[in-house]
Amino acid sequence: MLDGLLLGLSTAFSLKNLLMVIAGCLVGTFIGMLPGLGPMSIIAIMIPVAISLGDPSTALILLAGVYYGAIFGGSTSSILINAPGVAGTVATSFDGYPLAQKGQAGKALAIAAVCSFCGGTIGALLLVGFAPALASVALLFHSAEYFALMMVGLSAIAAFAGKGKVAKALLMTILGLMLSTIGESALFNAPRFTMGVQDLQSGVSFITLAMAMFALPEVFHMVLDPSRGLQGESNKQIKNLSVTKNEVKKIAPVVARQSLQGFFIGVMPGAGATIASFLGYAVERNIARPEEQKEFGKGSIKGLAAPETANNAACTGSFVPLLTLGIPGSGTTAILLGALIALNVSPGPRLMIDSPEVFWSVIVSMYIGNLVLLLLNLPLIPYIAKVLSVPRNYLVPFILFFTLMGAYIGQNNATELLLLVGLGICATVLRFADYPLAPLLIGFILGGMMEDNFARAMNITDGVSFMWERPGTLVLLIIGMALIAIPAYRNRGR
Amino acid sequence: MRLDRCVALLFLVVSIVYGLAAYHFPILPFERNMAFLPNTLPKVLSIAGALLSLFILLSPSDSMESTDIDFRKFRLGQASGLILGMVCYAVLLRPVGFITATILFILGSSMVLGERKLYRLLLIAFIAAFSIWYLVQETLGIYLSPWPRFLS
Q1: Of A45, A405, A412, the CB nearest to B140
Q2: Hey, is the C-beta of A23 within 8 angstroms of any chain B C-beta?
Q3: In A189-325, which residue ranges form alpha helices assigned H by DSSP?
């Protein structure tokens, strides 16, 4: 293993490869900030550039830089303007945006960058040590376990069910699940609930719904009530990155737990960063002390650190099935698989034997990508955070424009923009009526995957007996139910 | 009636309509023997949605947080202007092109919010529209028609 690591280090530390990782991180960060362009689309766009480089190691180093940069860029737009461009950064906005609203945008971005770095680095260490062993464990997960895992992910809604809001949070989750049933599904032959509208055949787009639920109500609220938003926070405070010793002590155990949890969830094909981030958020909220629990959703640094660490660790974990079995565990790794094949490299059990320089340079480039991203972005954070000090008359139109553009680029369809406006108005009304909107998005994101896996498991066993016959499913379902029921029970008297 | 209860009532109607659509969903002959049908989950969701809506509607007022809001102090005119601007952007994006529509949208919405420095605004709007168009179309290869149809 040591020889392999040295081989990877010597490849990755050449001047050309270092320049590639820096370029990749910068490109990924800046394009990733645009809502609608997540890591998957940016990597897909960069593949021709990577292939033109010729050398598979250099190409993969460039793509790894782009990947990590895009994830951080997505978190930036979630924290600063409450516009999560990809599902994996939705949980980041739960506490990242309230922190930015409190005038602590710089601190929120710094915590996000450091936690991402830690999650990615610990994940890369685990990848080196446990990749072959974990690959065989991942194959033991079937539809039944995936369904149960989605149920555990759905338990993140408990974080928004406080103080008389249990029924409202559940109602919003059901609305999200209902929206996820619109359009075509991989399992069924006819599109559902499209009401004859051609543009709804492929369902409601995630990006449109995310913008409508998070960014638009925030902007409309800011316009309707100008006293909201940043109130007299100085530029100095917004740009301030300093994290106190006490805060570091609070975050450290979260980072350790979520790096492990996120990595293991990422290893399972199909689970990925989204489930890892929701689950990380739910778990940290449930194990926090009661006074800390109240802070979740209102600007808790633990609530920001958990999803940021988990999603980066999960991204690294998703490389385990790709590199060891040749199975892409997520959309992004599927695109990377395509790039590897185009470069005449076949991932799988023989990759480590046939092309050790590629295997190890990918792993080393993950370390370097994370480190470069941290070193590049920390000095840039004060300037990025300054976005919030732009006058309202300029900031609001630009947020609206980026929201519209995100929805348009994703679907290349102007009808999507009208849907965005309609959903945005509905979301604003729901917000005034004190209905939490995050559960709606959680239900929508997990709903499709949950239904597919449940249907597959049910059709295989011809019933629901898989829920108690498969020990893994049963354990996961009990954990999921407990994560929803315990906080609801605790909140009953408040 | 309080706003949250109005929403619950509306959701009750939505759940009933959704449930009816689910019950009448056409099932293909070979699907009939499957354990899980395309309308299985929608049926469950419609029942759960209706029950939860009824629970919110019938709960005593003090068990829910108060959502009384004084809408009179809100700037409804500005918000309506922005919504109208977004609808116009959606309608005009293809006929007038990305750069033109974006400049008009940023100009219009900033003016709705009270901005009056037109030349500065025009310059900022042009730079923003052009640079985003250049990035998306020329660098990333995603087609966006920049100008009105008759000029393209």
Answers
A1: A45
A2: no
A3: 206-210, 216-224, 235-239, 245-267, 272-287, 290-293, 301-317, 319-325
The distance of Cα A333 from the centroid of its chain, to the nearest Å, equals 14
When CB atoms are compared, the residue of A396, A429, A463 closest to B109 is: A396
User: Is A174 in contact with B90 (Cβ distance < 8 A)?
Assistant: no
Residues shown for chain B: 152
C-alpha to C-alpha distance for B89 and B79, rounded to whole angstroms: 15
List the 391-410 stretch of A: residues with Cβ below 8 A of B: 392-394, 396-398, 400-401, 404-405, 408-409
| Bridge partners, residue A192, by sequence | A183
Interface of A with B in 104-133 (CB under 8 A): none
Q: Please check whether residue A36 is in contact with residue A406, taking contact to mean a CB–CB distance below 8 angstroms.
A: yes
Contact A321, A119 (CB under 8 A): no
Q: Can you tell me the distance from the alpha carbon of A83 to that of A93, in angstroms, rounded to the nearest whole number?
A: 8
Q: Inform me whether the C-beta atom of residue A435 falls under 8 Å from chain B C-beta atoms.
A: yes
Query: B26 to chain A nearest CA, in Å?
Result: 9
Residues in chain B with pLDDT values less than 50: none
Q: State pLDDT tens for residues A216-246.
A: 888 888 888 776 655 445 555 666 777 788 8
Q: Pull the structure tokens for residue A33.
A: 């900030």
User: pTM to 2 decimals?
Assistant: 0.77
A412 contacts in B (CB within 8 Å)?
Answer: 142-143
User: Residue A418 is nearest to which of B4, B38, B87, comparing CB atoms?
Assistant: B87
- Please answer yes or no on whether A192 and B42 come within 8 Å at the CB atom: yes
Q: CA A215, CA A36: separation in Å to the nearest integer?
A: 13
φ/ψ (deg, to 5) at B21 = -65, -40
3-state secondary structure A151-203: HHHHHHHHHHCCCCCHHHHHHHHHHHHHHHCCECCCCCCCCECCCCCHHHCCC
User: Which residues share a beta bridge with A43?
Assistant: none
Contact partners, residue A357, CB within 8 Å, separation at least 6: A7, A8, A11, A57
- Model confidence pLDDT, tens digit, residues B54-94: 998 888 765 555 555 666 777 888 889 999 999 999 998 88
Tell me how far apart the alpha carbons of residues A312 and A302 are, in angstroms, rounded to a whole number.
16
Chain B's closest residue to A188, CA to CA, is B38
Structural domain boundaries in chain A: 2-493
**Do the Cβ atoms of B132 and A405 come within 8 Å?**
yes
CA distances from B35 to A142, A180, A287, B18, B26 (A): 18, 21, 38, 21, 16
Point out the residue among B74, B87, B114 whose CB comes nearest to the CB of A421. Answer: B87
The single residue listed with the structure tokens 């709903």 is A447
DSSP assignment of A434-487 equals: T--SHHHHHHHHHHHHHHHHHHHHHHHHTSSTHHHHSHHHHHHHHHHHHHHHHH
The residue among A204, A215, A191, A276 whose CA lies nearest residue A85 is: A215
Going from N- to C-terminal start, the domains of chain B cover 3-69, 74-139
Q: Which two tokens stand for residue A242?
A: 């300093």
pLDDT tens digit sequence for A420-462: 999 999 999 998 888 888 888 888 888 888 888 888 888 888 8
